[in-house]
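Anyone up for a design puzzle?
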């Protein structure tokens, strides 16, 4: 079969439906519908596309536009009444599941000094990335972590966890990231409130960092068999230092600059079973090439300013802005500064893609690896 005839066959015949409705077929479909059945050829083109077609759209949430609305919620609802005082990010293509992108949820939570949310547990895995403030803390199964700007903390699925801000702190805002939409799609979600509404701190403060936080070292006779990282807190300062060392020691990745994944120090794998996270450094003037991959990715700007081109649309970002890259969307990142680093925090569903054997990546071959800019947000 020649290439031309194969392409015609692929596009018009193989595995695809090209059946015109007739009165007899319409009546047939109605008969099947009454039996709670259907003809595959009526949906085949939708449920088995040639390549991923995400319902999510690229979105940039500008922090300077959202911040006042996040703070305003403090005067409108209390943590006790709201459960969690959060402004969630709603992707126009995923509104029915309240997702920021794909099957990932994101929201901005605010707490004032002296406030505390009640302890709870749920089936969804969660993380927090601190945006501003002082005195924030999280308690996970009795382990208390103090948190500063750009710190990243885990609250894995099934763990008792609670958050608050110390009385002598400052108002704090952080990003919540969860796999709520995924867990709900799997119809596996449970939620529980701690019987005492709060949990006792049973360990020295920041003990997980003291035990597991030394890079390249593993403590003797300290066991860990749970499917998530025992290092609940990943601090900004050593992360940034590691990125600068990586950037100075090797050539940039052409797509992502200096990219490092947060890992489980026991297994070397992802921090949680369903959510992965990373931080990348774009050197001054870095202009990444375009690629695409399966999986949904949500970025928060930890440092600097620049822009990303996603499926031909340019999004200019600065510190604390958040943007998403849907599955199989062409994207490239640029550091707009000629003198300052830019750093992007990201959380994603990469562990799910990898475990299910669904991860695929492709570089853009045309136009020197760069997309034409068709529009600008």
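Challenge accepted. My sequence:
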């Amino acid at each position: 079969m020649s290439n031309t005839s194969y392409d015609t066959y692929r596009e018009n015949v193989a595995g695809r439906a090209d059946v015109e409705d007739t009165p007899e077929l319409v009546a047939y479909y109605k008969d099947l519908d009454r039996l709670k059945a259907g003809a595959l050829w009526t949906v085949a083109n939708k449920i088995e596309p040639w390549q991923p077609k995400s319902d999510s759209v690229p979105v940039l949430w500008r922090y300077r536009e959202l911040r006042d609305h996040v703070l305003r919620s403090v005067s409108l609802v209390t943590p006790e009444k709201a459960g969690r005082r959060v402004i969630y990010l709603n992707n126009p293509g995923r509104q029915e599941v309240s997702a920021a992108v794909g099957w990932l949820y994101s929201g901005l939570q605010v707490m004032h000094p002296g406030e505390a949310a009640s302890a709870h547990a749920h089936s969804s895995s969660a993380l927090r990335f601190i945006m501003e403030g002082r005195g924030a803390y999280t308690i996970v199964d009795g382990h208390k972590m103090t948190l500063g700007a750009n710190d990243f903390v885990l609250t894995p699925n099934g763990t008792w966890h609670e958050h608050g801000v110390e009385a002598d702190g400052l108002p704090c805002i952080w990003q919540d990231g969860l796999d709520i939409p995924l867990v709900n799609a799997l119809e596996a979600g449970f939620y529980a409130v701690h019987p005492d509404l709060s949990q006792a701190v049973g360990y020295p403060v920041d003990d997980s960092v003291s035990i597991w936080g030394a890079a390249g070292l593993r403590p003797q006779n300290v066991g860990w068999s749970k499917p998530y990282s025992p290092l609940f807190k990943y601090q900004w300062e050593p992360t940034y230092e590691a990125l600068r060392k990586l950037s100075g020691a090797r050539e940039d990745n052409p797509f992502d600059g200096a990219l490092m994944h947060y890992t489980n120090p026991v297994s070397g794998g992802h921090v949680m079973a369903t959510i992965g996270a990373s931080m990348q450094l774009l050197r001054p003037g870095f202009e990444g090439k375009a690629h695409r991959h399966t999986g949904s990715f949500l970025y928060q700007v930890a440092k600097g300013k620049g822009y990303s081109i996603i499926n031909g649309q340019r999004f200019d970002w600065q510190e604390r802005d958040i943007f998403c890259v849907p599955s199989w969307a062409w994207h490239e990142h640029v550091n707009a500064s000629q003198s300052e680093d830019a750093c992007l925090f990201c959380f994603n569903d990469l562990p799910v893609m990898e475990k299910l054997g669904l991860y695929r990546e492709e570089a853009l071959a045309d136009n020197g690896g760069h997309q034409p800019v068709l529009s600008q947000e």
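A detail worth pointing out: DSSP finds nine helices and 21 strands in the chain.
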